Amino acid sequence: MTKPVALAADHGGYELKESIKAHLDERGIAYQDFGTLDGASCDYPDMAKAACDAVVAGDCRCALLFCGTGVGISMSANKIDGIRACCCSDAFSAEYTRRHNDANALCLGGRVVGPGLAACLVDLFLDTPFEGGRHQRRIEKMMALEQH
């Protein structure tokens, strides 16, 4: 059985997270929602930590994170050892962040990306495998930067 996807959003990304939950339900993809659960004002670093901790622990296969722009939650997620988060608003980036960077967190902005495009980006992110090969060496170098 495939591990669930971790979801988290602050108040700026809440509505987009909810639309993605419906999309994941349609696709039959399991997820775990780490909040916010009601759209009340909250801080994106707290939301990123909860979902990313589940990815690092191996409880979830990746994270889909949402804030107003996608940038703040991306920056927060990337502070967590073991996370490779990418803020995307186009299909090419969403696909190639998986193919070449083995990203394990996709960050989207609720005030930047509409629900239709967000669903497309999520599908690309979830369905695209990491190519490995020459890219693996670069991933290892990138992750070694956490030690400095």
From TrEMBL:
Pfam families: LacAB_rpiB. D-ribulose 5-phosphate binds at D10, H11, G68, T69, G70, V71, G72, N101, R111, R134, R138. The keyword Isomerase applies. GO terms for biological process: carbohydrate metabolic process. Keywords: Isomerase. The keyword Isomerase applies. GO terms for molecular function: ribose-5-phosphate isomerase activity. InterPro entries: RpiB (IPR004785), RpiB_LacA_LacB (IPR003500), RpiB_LacA_LacB_sf (IPR036569), SPI_LacAB/RpiB (IPR051812). Its EC number is 5.3.1.6. The active site is at C67 (proton acceptor), H100 (proton donor). Belongs to the LacAB/RpiB family. This is Ribose 5-phosphate isomerase B. It comes from Candidatus Allofournierella pullistercoris.
